[in-house]
Amino acid sequence: MTKLQRMTALTGALLLLIGLLTGGLLAAAMNGTVMATVHDVRAAHLNAVLGCFWICAFAATMPMLGYGERGSRRLAILTIVPNYANWLITTIKSFLHVAGIALDGDAKNDAVFMALNVVVVVPSLIAAGAWVYGLYIRGPRAEASTLRQ
């Protein structure tokens, strides 16, 4: 296991801890102790837990990727940052009481929408595509070129 792989797994484990702690915030929102939208706190809690699984799965598959150290590091960052941002932005959104799913002219809602798209959605799609491609160039594509020889 490389240092990068271990650090990536650690960031996944830390996100799980953050997600589990967000469960306490969820309970507080559900009983009215904090004024946050329950649905959004639940979403933040689940975003962190699922993000942890993605980061840890990525860490586990790093040796299978067709990227070098630099490419793997970049892809790790591109996987980690959006997952943490997804948890953070959704948690903040729960206190702003906005949907953040479309531009509607409300400054807070529009800021959440833009932040989610710029920091979470687009980078996550790029990271997922690069992860699949990295596995492909080391896997089926590499095997096919070996068979042709």
State the secondary-structure class.
mainly alpha
Secondary structure: helix percent:
over 70%
Strand proportion: under 5%
Q: How many structural domains does the protein architecture include?
A: 1
Low-confidence stretches: none
Mean pLDDT: 95
Q: What form results from the Cα inertia axes?
A: elongated
Strands, count: 0
Element order: H for helix, E for strand: HHHHH
Q: Note the gap between the termini.
A: 32 Å
Taking the sheet with the most strands, its summary is: none
Work out the radius of gyration: 18 Å
Provide an overview of this structure.
This protein has 149 residues and is mainly alpha-helical. It has one domain. It is built from five helices and no strands. It starts with a helix and ends with a helix.
